[in-house]
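To the wet lab folks,

You asked to see what we're planning to order before we commit. Fair enough. Below is the target structure as tokens, and below that is the sequence we designed to fit it. If anything looks off to you, flag it before the synthesis order goes out.
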């Protein structure tokens, strides 16, 4: 798969085929209300009916509600752990028990694996399928249009459904070979070599870091996240939803709703103004369960000096919002272009992916 969402889609196809192989037509995929938007999209593309389980007051899956939703029609559940709030799903063992209790499967969205490297293995938690965002977790820069890579891993009972070919080893000849004879496979989703450059960089990164290095990555990313969170949560106009005393993992989500109510300045305005201070705008309005959501993920690569610089920039923007809200609302000022009409920019009429599509649209 060429990205995380592509891996999700393949995982959903495997879940569908697993149940069909047992003569069952499971129709329902459960997704938390804090999930990445690609989770329900991937499930729907694979033909599932998506049902959303809400989060509890701690920002985790509401297990009591999940228990009411689980029945013989449930094919599986898609989870990110830690979730998009940066909170570890402490009831994961109970969730696994409920889903496996009806022969459902658990899909692990590997987008947040950064926090668990060398600490926890998703398979030990009870997950059956996982995708890894190599372009996020293993050295290749995230964003910028790609390329990405989202390979998946499965438990043994699902191996037969993987796309061909599989790399196998012949003990008699002492040679590796490609096995195309996979009659139960869901079929190919990408050329065999995938986005090869990302795979090579990932392999080199793993060799360079080793097990101890990967554990330091997780520890440093979590430390940086909580250091920055404890500074930001004290700023005027900021609140921390869902169990504010609980440490987060590698990322956290604060709400700028107090700022919006007091000044009319929204999260998108703050993000745009940060551009003028030389910082890339963070993810905003996600997850949807947080009003005026503002997500920060320092990662393991940023120094304390850089993290402190980001904090000072954000503090200055928030202070400015109370002094001169209109200035923040009209940012940015130092970019090649000013505030763009994002609704218009995202419409298909202004985004033509190829010359063929352009000619078709022009008649």
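Sequence we intend to order:
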């Amino acid at each position: 798969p060429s990205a995380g969402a592509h891996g999700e889609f393949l995982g959903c196809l495997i879940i569908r085929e697993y149940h069909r192989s047992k003569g069952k037509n499971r129709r329902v995929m459960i997704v938390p209300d804090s999930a990445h938007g690609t989770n329900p999209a991937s499930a729907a593309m694979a033909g599932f009916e998506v049902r959303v389980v809400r989060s509890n007051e701690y920002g985790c899956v509401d297990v009591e509600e999940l228990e009411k939703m689980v029945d013989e029609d449930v094919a599986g559940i898609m989870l990110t752990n830690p979730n998009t709030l940066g909170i570890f799903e402490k009831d994961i063992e109970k969730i696994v028990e409920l889903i496996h209790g009806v022969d459902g499967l658990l899909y692990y969205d590997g987008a947040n694996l950064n926090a668990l490297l060398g600490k926890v293995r998703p398979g030990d938690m009870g997950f059956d399928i996982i995708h890894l965002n190599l372009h996020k977790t293993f050295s290749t820069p995230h964003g910028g249009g790609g390329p990405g890579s989202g390979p998946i891993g499965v438990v043994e009972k699902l191996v037969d459904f993987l796309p061909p070919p599989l790399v196998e080893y012949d003990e008699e000849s002492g040679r590796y070979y490609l096995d195309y004879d996979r009659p139960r496979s869901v079929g190919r989703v990408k050329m065999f070599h995938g986005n090869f450059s990302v795979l090579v960089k990932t392999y080199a990164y793993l060799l360079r870091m080793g097990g101890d290095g990967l554990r330091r990555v997780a520890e440093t990313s979590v430390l940086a996240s909580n250091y920055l969170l404890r500074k930001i949560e004290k700023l005027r106009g900021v609140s921390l939803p869902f169990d504010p005393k609980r440490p987060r993992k590698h990322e956290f989500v604060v709400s700028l709703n107090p700022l919006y109510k007091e000044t009319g300045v929204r999260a998108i305005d703050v993000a745009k103004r940060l551009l003028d201070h030389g910082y890339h705008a963070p993810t905003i309005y996600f997850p949807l369960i947080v009003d005026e959501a503002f997500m920060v993920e320092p990662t393991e690569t940023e120094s304390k000096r850089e993290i402190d610089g980001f904090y000072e920039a954000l503090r200055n923007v928030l202070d400015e919002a109370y002094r001169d809200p209109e200035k923040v609302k009209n940012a940015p000022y130092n970019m090649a272009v000013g505030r763009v009409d994002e609704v218009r920019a995202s419409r298909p009429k202004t985004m033509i992916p190829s010359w063929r599509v352009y000619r078709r649209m022009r008649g």
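Structural context that might help your review: The longest strand covers residues 74-79. DSSP finds 13 helices and ten strands in the chain.

Thanks,
Computational group
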